[in-house]
């Protein structure tokens, strides 16, 4: 195995990362220096008491500022900060007020000066008693969906300053907009393999992927995406969280071990919501090499039995394209997670990893398909659509040359064609092929919803968008999914529901221009002109010089009836006609 493979394989297996919490003292407090020092010591002790060691590492005084606490895991540090206010004295005359800031560290045992300076800047941006996180710290969270995160955008307007801030807003609800009950949903949890280390974690992810791919081929089941179920891989109560946060009706859970000679032993159980006993239990035993080559009869048999329990029908076996080595899958898994991180360095590293994997496996479609998605995600980084779309389309078409039934590649090819203004029939054919290959591909349903919206088939678009959300409720691209749902609902004259999804999208990503457009026109259509004006200010900050004329000419569905409704609402909100 090449040295670069080993290095990136380690990245693939990395768990929660280190971080520092800075508690910055309110400089305007009226306490004496002695009382202030005593209060800070009490606050530090309370914070330490709330955080076990490990992950807690060391307490650092910040003279004249407050103190800093480092930890090997970010999520517990943030949870401890949230609970600190309840541990401090409630008396307003004697209480100290802090601003809290959290930033990622390379090493909790040895934070460097630059890292501490950034953490202090993050703390300075928080309201008194509030908590702010850098984008790098958010990337380290194991359960971001459990926190009321609010994107506050860039810390400054300076192009050379990359610091992006997120606040914990206690007034923001934790739960995303409700998704209607679209029938029983099945979630597959990543297996728990005992004593297997990094290699075992990679095997566990591959098993979960194989199970989800096989079960997703059935048009009779609705299977939660692997990207969403991965969000629970660090949960200590994954089964309960799957029912609560993935909105699953049934959950397939696996436990086992990776034995000598890479033999995998699994115990599988199918659970139903509010039923204490499993609906089904089974065992599977196979060689890792069979898993790599996508020909694992025991897993296929287990999927067929699960399908029979849920639908009283058999499931046709599917054969996945082979991997030469476990490290190749491990590298793909890491790259696909990194591409959705907030830090620009992680996004760039994802591209380098996929390029390396494609060089190692030039005939495999997966690196090509994910490189196509990487290019589409460049648009969110500010890249030009006309530059990105041809690259994404070429890569998706290369993936389809290697696997004509590749669902993700079809979905991405269809969306890239729409971005290039190709005939709707061409992009629509790709979306249909994507859903035929995998009826549970949430991204395919999402792009299909966009396609339907631009064609004026808004009711169908709403149904497709809601299904996409149901299939991947913890998707790392959730802001885009909510934005598409808002778009479809607004086009279908469901303005209040559309506004809810637009607001949730903007909470997750305050820099997404189309979402800001939907906020402006939704508020305007509801007669909330003051809120429309506030959203318009944010839109013009993001897209200076934007006009109603530009909207009319650039909107892909410009021939539809709702396009003119959108344009009139933008004009009512005060967007210049141009």
Instruction: Give the CATH H-level superfamily of the largest domain.
Output: Nucleotide cyclase, GGDEF domain
Count of discrete alpha- or pi-helical segments spanning 4 or more residues: 24
Query: Roughly what fraction of the amino acids lie in strands?
Result: 5-15%
Oligomer: single chain
The secondary structure category is alpha/beta
Q: Kindly state the number of beta strands.
A: 13
Please give the CATH architecture of the largest domain.
2-Layer Sandwich
The largest pleated sheet is described as: 7 strands, mixed
Helical percentage:
40-55%
How confident is the prediction overall: mean pLDDT?
A: 89
- Unreliable spans: none
CATH class of the largest domain equals Alpha Beta
Distance between the termini: 59 Å
What best-fitting shape do the alpha-carbon axes yield? globular
Examine the coordinates and then state which fold CATH places here, giving the name of the CATH topology of the largest domain: Alpha-Beta Plaits
Across the major sheet, the strand order is 2-3-1-4-5-7-6
Radius of gyration based on Cα positions:
25 Å
Number of domains: 4
């Amino acid at each position: 195995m090449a040295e670069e493979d080993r290095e990136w394989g380690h990245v693939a297996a990395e768990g929660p990362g280190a971080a520092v919490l800075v508690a910055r003292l309110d400089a305007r407090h009226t306490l004496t220096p002695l009382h202030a020092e005593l209060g800070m010591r009490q606050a530090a002790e309370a914070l330490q008491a709330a955080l076990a060691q490990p992950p807690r590492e060391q307490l650092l005084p910040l003279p004249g500022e407050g103190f800093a606490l480092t930890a090997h895991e970010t999520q517990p540090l943030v949870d401890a900060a949230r609970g600190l206010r309840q541990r401090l004295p409630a008396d307003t005359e004697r209480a100290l007020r802090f601003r809290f800031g959290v930033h990622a560290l390379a090493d909790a045992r040895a934070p460097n000066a630059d890292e501490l300076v950034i953490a202090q800047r993050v703390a300075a941006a928080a309201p008194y008693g509030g908590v702010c996180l850098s984008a790098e710290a958010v990337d380290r969270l194991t359960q971001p969906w459990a926190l009321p995160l609010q994107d506050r955008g860039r810390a400054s307007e300076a192009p050379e300053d990359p610091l992006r801030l997120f606040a914990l807003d206690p007034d923001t609800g934790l739960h995303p907009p409700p998704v209607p009950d679209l029938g029983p949903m099945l979630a597959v949890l990543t297996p728990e393999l005992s004593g297997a280390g990094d290699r075992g974690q990679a095997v566990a992810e591959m098993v979960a992927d194989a199970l989800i791919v096989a079960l997703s081929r059935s048009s009779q089941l609705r299977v939660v995406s692997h990207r969403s179920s991965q969000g629970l891989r660090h949960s200590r109560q994954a089964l309960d969280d799957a029912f609560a946060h993935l909105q699953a009706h049934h959950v397939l859970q696996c436990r086992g071990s990776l034995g000598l000679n890479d033999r995998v032993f699994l115990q599988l159980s199918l659970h139903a919501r509010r039923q204490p006993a499993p609906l089904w239990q089974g065992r599977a035993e196979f060689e890792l090499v069979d898993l790599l080559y996508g020909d694992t009869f025991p897993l296929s048999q287990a999927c067929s039995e699960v399908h029979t329990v849920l639908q009283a029908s058999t499931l046709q076996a599917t054969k996945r394209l082979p991997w030469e080595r476990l490290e190749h899958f491990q590298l793909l898994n890491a790259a696909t997670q990194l591409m959705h991180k907030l830090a620009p360095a992680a996004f760039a590293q994802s591209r380098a990893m996929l390029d390396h994997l494609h060089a190692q496996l030039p005939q495999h479609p997966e690196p090509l398909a994910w490189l196509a998605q990487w290019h589409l995600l460049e648009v969110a980084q500010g890249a030009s659509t006309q530059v990105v779309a041809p690259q994404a389309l070429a890569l998706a078409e290369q993936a389809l040359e290697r696997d004509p039934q590749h669902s993700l590649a079809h979905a991405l090819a269809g969306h890239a064609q729409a971005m290039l203004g190709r005939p709707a029939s061409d992009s629509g054919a790709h979306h249909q092929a994507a859903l035929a290959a995998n009826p549970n591909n949430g991204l395919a349903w999402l792009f299909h919803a966009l396609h339907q919206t631009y064609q004026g088939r808004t009711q169908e678009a709403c149904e497709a968008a809601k299904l996409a959300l149901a299939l991947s409720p913890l998707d790392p691209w959730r802001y885009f999914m909510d934005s598409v749902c808002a778009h479809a609902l607004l086009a279908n004259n469901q303005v209040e529901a559309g506004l809810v999804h637009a607001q949730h999208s903007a909470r997750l990503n305050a820099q997404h221009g189309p979402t800001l457009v939907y906020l402006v026109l939704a508020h305007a259509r509801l007669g909330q002109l003051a809120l429309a004006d506030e959203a318009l200010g944010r839109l013009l900050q993001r897209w200076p010089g934007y006009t109603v004329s530009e909207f009319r000419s650039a909107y892909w569905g410009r021939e539809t009836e709702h396009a003119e409704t959108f344009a009139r609402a933008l004009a009512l909100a005060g967007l210049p006609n141009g």
